[in-house]
Design goal:
Helix content: 25-40%
Number of strands: 2
Strand order of the largest sheet: 1-2
Structural class: alpha+beta
Order of helices and strands: HHEEH
Distance between the termini: 44 Å
């Protein structure tokens, strides 16, 4: 497989903004538990615990997850969220049968997030949806 390097690419420009969720309503533990129970029973290889175990323990964990998700969304700062929740396993998948498997352009990236990342995303839209 041919590999490409970005070692000589120009450094991107980052613009720091201060953004807060002024009208944010904290999500309730019941909504976090509801979001977890609606999730499919599958997980990523980097998940710290199986989804079935999270679902089984969600009534005990929901208040803590709720606080962490709310602090993260209210402050607009991700430092309240553990780094493990912000990582993904990227797997290349061939776009369609018959494409040249030695050509990088024949693949698309599939991002597998942890269950907690999915839960955080779901919980963040529950108060609005």
């Amino acid at each position: 497989m041919r590999q490409h390097s970005t070692s000589d690419a120009t450094e991107p420009d980052y613009v720091m903004t201060v953004c807060t969720f002024g009208d944010f309503r904290p999500v309730s533990p019941d909504k976090v538990a509801e979001a977890v129970r609606k999730m499919p029973n599958k997980q990523c290889s980097s998940d710290p615990m199986p989804t079935w175990l999270l679902t089984e323990c969600i009534d005990d964990l929901a208040p803590y997850l709720c606080q962490m998700f709310s602090l993260s969304l209210q402050s607009g700062v991700d430092r309240v969220v553990p780094a493990a929740f912000k990582t993904a396993v990227i797997c290349p998948r061939i776009k369609k049968a018959g494409l040249d498997q030695s050509d990088v352009k024949s693949y698309r990236p599939i991002s597998n997030l942890t269950v907690m990342s999915d839960c955080r995303r779901s919980a963040s839209v529950l108060p609005f949806g």
